[in-house]
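Budget justification aside, the reviewers requested a transparent look at the raw inputs and outputs of the sequence design task funded under Objective 1. We therefore reproduce one unedited record. The lines immediately below are the structure tokens for a 373-residue chain.
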């Protein structure tokens, strides 16, 4: 396969200039104009950040991308899907409130915000896949599949399950509906925390499979009947239903690559990763530790595999920040020769995601880095 081009710029700016202008230049030089945006719906997939977290991408970055789309005649919107776990982004109402709390609004970003899988994470499109190992029919947030063009705007950082979070984490996991996320995280069957269950029966009413009984006085899910649709997670307002996360991390990485294929296939797609405030863990946490690396820069590419590889390589070439989670982990467990993400998150192997995505034809790990000044 031919090398993919990944465009890169660092975050240095002379006095009086803004890094936002650098992002605009990066998009221009990476060939944003090659996409025919005219009259098209354009989903900009972003992570709005869990309230309390301060390392998520500020709305200012999204504004640059939305404005660039609008200048080219497109109709952009910012989007994400609901989470599987308890938190403040598990239904569309709380998710939008959290986004607003973190500064995302039509005023700040120049476009609307849409939670792609609806109020309770059940509004999904089924995308058939061929040649995949695990996923035969991906479950993707409806608004994301209804759009004409998909742009990934991701904050590049560490991730406890996949090593790092970049373009493919943003698209593969992030665009999955609740059932889609369940399928990636485990065999797709949720469980009940009895202590939290108030026996309100809301979950049972939402279950189309009659899989929830109350023989013990608390909700219990019969995994023989459960089809893993995830509706009960959205129905429970007491965070009593959870995803047990029982798949191996390798299977999770491969499924994420397969979900990325579902999101990008058969339509134009473009990817931007910003490696800044590089936290050790995902922006899904309601807090963040100090950065593990210095601010690295911004990447743009038509290839979601190449951009992840390039960002990982650049990060791995950086010296860890002193007194960070990464430097603690290096001192505790390893010498100098290591992969930053694997040493932070033992048991993860981000290369599995990239290798599998490459096998599926999502993109290539071989890239040419083009520096933009
Ligand atoms: S919706 Fe939640 S609290 Fe209500 S019965 Fe089901 S598990 Fe228990
Ligand atoms: S995941 Fe779906 S099928 Fe399974 S118990 Fe919950 S609502 Fe029922």
């Amino acid at each position: 396969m031919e090398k993919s081009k990944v465009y890169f710029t660092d975050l240095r700016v002379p006095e009086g200039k803004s890094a936002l202008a650098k992002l605009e230049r990066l998009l221009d030089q990476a060939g944003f104009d090659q996409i025919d945006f005219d009259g098209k719906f354009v989903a900009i997939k972003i992570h709005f950040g869990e309230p309390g977290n301060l390392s998520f991408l500020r709305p200012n970055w999204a504004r640059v991308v939305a404005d660039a789309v609008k200048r080219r005649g497109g109709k952009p919107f910012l989007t994400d899907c609901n989470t599987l776990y308890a938190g403040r982004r598990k239904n569309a109402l709380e998710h939008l409130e959290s986004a607003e709390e973190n500064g995302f609004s039509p005023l700040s970003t120049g476009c609307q915000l849409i939670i792609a899988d609806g109020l309770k994470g059940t509004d999904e499109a089924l995308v058939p896949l061929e040649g995949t190992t695990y996923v035969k029919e991906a479950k993707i947030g409806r608004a994301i599949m209804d759009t004409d063009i998909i742009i990934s705007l991701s904050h590049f950082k560490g991730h406890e399950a996949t090593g790092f979070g970049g373009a493919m984490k943003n698209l593969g996991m992030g665009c999955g509906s609740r059932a889609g996320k369940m399928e990636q995280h485990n065999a797709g069957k949720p469980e009940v925390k009895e202590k939290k269950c108030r026996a309100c029966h809301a979950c049972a009413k939402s279950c189309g499979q009659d899989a929830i009984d109350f023989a013990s006085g608390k909700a219990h899910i019969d995994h023989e009947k459960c089809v893993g649709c995830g509706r009960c997670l959205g129905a429970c307002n007491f965070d009593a239903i959870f995803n047990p996360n029982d798949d191996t991390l390798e299977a999770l990485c491969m499924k994420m690559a397969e979900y990325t294929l579902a999101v990008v296939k058969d339509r134009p797609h473009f990817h931007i990763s910003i490696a800044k405030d590089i936290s050790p863990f995902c922006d899904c946490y309601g807090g963040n530790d100090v950065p593990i690396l210095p601010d690295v820069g911004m990447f743009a590419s038509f290839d979601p595999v190449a951009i992840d590889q390039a960002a990982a390589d650049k990060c791995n070439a950086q010296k860890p920040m002193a007194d960070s989670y990464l430097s603690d982990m290096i001192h505790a467990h390893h010498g100098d020769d290591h992969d930053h993400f694997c040493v932070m998150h033992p048991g993860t192997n981000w290369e599995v995601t990239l290798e599998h995505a490459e096998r599926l034809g999502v993109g290539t790990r071989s890239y040419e880095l083009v520096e933009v000044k």
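The longest strand covers residues 149-155. The domain at 4-186+249-371 is CATH 3.40.50.11440 (Rossmann fold). Computational costs for records of this kind are itemized in the attached budget.
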